[in-house]
Queue: 2 jobs
Job 1
Amino acid sequence: AQSVTQLGSHVSVSEGALVLLRCNYSSSVPPYLFWYVQYPNQGLQLLLKYTTGATLVKGINGFEAEFKKSETSFHLTKPSAHMSDAAEYFCAVRGNQAGTALIFGKGTTLSVSS
Amino acid sequence: KAGVTQTPRYLIKTRGQQVTLSCSPISGHRSVSWYQQTPGQGLQFLFEYFSETQRNKGNFPGRFSGRQFSNSRSEMNVSTLELGDSALYLCASSLVMGGGSYNEQFFGPGTRLTVL
């Protein structure tokens, strides 16, 4: 069965600092991995995804993530945080090969202070 | 191109009532999935529809049901509402489903259901 664990329900950084949001997964099939962002009172927006190929994935808004099979990790990073990055971030893994259903982590709230 | 739309955006019901939520996918998208988001349980998959057929189902009681129409629009229904059904219900659409390659899911803004 597939599962996702996000370490840290709340991460606080200063503007300009490195953002690191941690995600570990468990999957019985080759994983398709995703990071989504959710702003208050909005739906989810895809930041980036890993399906196959290059293990370093670049996404929108300067975010990137690296797929590490040996560590079963898919951590999200951004070199320099901006106030507008404050939101809730979700890591997800595809539930099975037949469908598009996603299994989500519990989410990490990112706060950015000036 | 218009995004995924969900109606209504907010809904207040009382215990025991039933509710129907609507989702219009992005034009050309044929797969629609539904998720429930609560503070305690997080985001949980409800079901997925493709070509008017339910293809996958999450671990929810039979009170939760859905359907998809020939134009790919989808509705979900919750009968005999309970307090614990209060949640944000998110709909997501994708071009197709599965098939060995991933089709990105685009999410709507959600319907906020409050059960009193």
Job 2
Amino acid sequence: QKEVEQNSGPLSVPEGAIASLNCTYSDRVSQSFFWYRQYSGKSPELIMSIYSNCDKEDGRFTAQLNKASQYVSLLIRDSQPSDSATYLCAVIASGNTPLVFGKGTRLSVIA
Amino acid sequence: DARVTQTPRHKVTEMGQEVTMRCQPILGHNTVFWYRQTMMQGLELLAYFRNRAPLDDSGMPKDRFSAEMPDATLATLKIQPSEPRDSAVYFCASGRTSRGNQPQHFGDGTRLSIL
């Protein structure tokens, strides 16, 4: 069974620090990886996608992928209280299969 | 911005009643997914469609849940009869697979409470 594992948290970081969120996946043939942010009472919102072993940067967010070790991470630089949310890692094995989601890591940025 | 539209946003009803949730996917998206989210289980995939054809509904309790896509602009999820354990947030998401591994975009959800 395909699984995506995340530490449930809460992960607490001070404002301005770097928040590091990690995710491991079991299906070695996984091709595409996504990070969603979900505020309390809201729907998941796509914030990053990554497809190859590299670092992908978008503003304060950096996604890192290591297919050999089967993990993907999300770094948030200069964390803000508005970054406080649950971050969901999601993985696709191929274009014909649905996303498999982790249960999410709750991040709390303390002002 | 294009959005996935779900109705109703909230639903409170008594046990045993039929519940119908509706979803309008983003125009041009050919895959539609239904998820249920609870604190304990996280996001669970209930069913999904590609080009209106059901591909997998193994996540649904077959005796009470049904999912259909009568046309490209409407997907429905029905529960009959409803039970208190069905209380959750139900999300619809849509995506486009014709261009490789594209992500899914979520609607705002239907918050369902069965009394």
